[in-house]
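Our collaborator T.R. sent over the components below with a one-line note: 'Predict the complex.' Nothing else. No constraints on interfaces, no templates requested, no preferences about which chain binds where. So this is a plain run: every listed entity goes in together, and whatever single assembly comes back becomes the starting point for the next discussion.
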Amino acid sequence: MEASQLERIAAQIQRSPFARSLGIRLEKLEEGHAVATMKVREDMLNFQGNPHGGAIFALADTAFGAAGNSHGTKAVALDMTISYVSAVEAGALLRAEAREESLGNRIGFYRITVTDQAGSLVANVQATVYRKREPLPGFDGS
Amino acid sequence: MEASQLERIAAQIQRSPFARSLGIRLEKLEEGHAVATMKVREDMLNFQGNPHGGAIFALADTAFGAAGNSHGTKAVALDMTISYVSAVEAGALLRAEAREESLGNRIGFYRITVTDQAGSLVANVQATVYRKREPLPGFDGS
Amino acid sequence: MEASQLERIAAQIQRSPFARSLGIRLEKLEEGHAVATMKVREDMLNFQGNPHGGAIFALADTAFGAAGNSHGTKAVALDMTISYVSAVEAGALLRAEAREESLGNRIGFYRITVTDQAGSLVANVQATVYRKREPLPGFDGS
Amino acid sequence: MEASQLERIAAQIQRSPFARSLGIRLEKLEEGHAVATMKVREDMLNFQGNPHGGAIFALADTAFGAAGNSHGTKAVALDMTISYVSAVEAGALLRAEAREESLGNRIGFYRITVTDQAGSLVANVQATVYRKREPLPGFDGS
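Returned assembly:
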């Protein structure tokens, strides 16, 4: 895949309304590999005053979605398992890195790690996509 | 547990900044059982134009967190597995129902289902909490 | 599907060498629904003297595989999450029940519960299959 | 921990009846790290003629259990998620490697990979233990 194609995919992913609303930035996109970051804002806390598990998950999911769609073929999540390894505080800068473990015609397997600014492990994710027989917009071979 | 205590827990959960920002409403809270709803807004979509997996997860997580903390003891998520059973569209009104499958001194097991307004299954979640030896605020035995 | 076809599928599943070696019995098979039982033998214990997680999983997996293949189309497991809800003892008679939550052309979603003879929950499983475009042997439309 | 202590733990794990019945060998044990191997025998196949998911899981579970108990404290599995990345054939020599991702007082997080003799990824596992306040036999501080 040419760099310009990856840039087009990255640009599409960056336009995700939900990721934008959470201030998630896609820092890196290669085929089967993506890095995204997010600062935990006050409006991402749960009632206990800790970062909401859903916000941490959304960051991991965004990196995963980027890696899963990085080949130009539309991929949808089937299963995701998140383990919350350690607590983080409001204001933390989180980094999610998604790596493709295996890619088949219809199924792709991924592992994602979420770390904080000190490099400590915050969450581990194992995830699977189903790849549709549809190219991403603008990747229809034309 | 008295109804007034459950109401106090429900009020705490309702104040979760992240759940509020997503418009999530806690519709029901009983010991080991919670129902929450969320309308999928335009700002919850992913780059493909579908509801972001992270938003669906956040709803399920909120119902789970409510059920897990419903006994007045602070509970934190360990592991959550979500299966995305079927796609939903923007504007859908989603309902997450969390049921406690087993409760031990330190560990609790839950199953959560997310359905749409027609009752169709959107996502299944299986999840586990670790229960700290800390009461929720206001539940310190006093 | 006719009863005779389900019987043929059940007969195939019963011939699984691994399930046979563990003494697993397929008690019931309907489309999208299966029940299997297993007695925890002494040779199924782990080094702590408890039933090995792998043996409990194998029972759940067998019920899941039966339900997943019950439509006459070859299905393979993608992801399975098991939560070990409560401990059981050697000699326990376990029962796994698999229910299809959703069935698509290529993907099927299942929940499996493992209970003991008293009906107590031993393990919860959430699992997903990929359905190949291949009939089971003897189901090739002929 | 002294090498002699790890050897004692390894010896205990090796005596697991279920692991023995499957011919699983514990090849390596360090604190938070274990490697186990298993040859897929004819009696480990499923009804489709492929290695039974339960047998592959049992190998991963054994490596995980070894790593989880490697500190001399009794650990029990809470949740395990297995993704079946690629198919293997009867006769394959499988290798499971478990790595501790994080260890707390009561909870430990692990990732396990199963590979074949060519080093190809067969399965990914993400797993969590609960650590009891009990030493393993022979590790009671005396």
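Summary for T.R.: Residues 75 and 131 of chain D are 4 Å apart (CA to CA).
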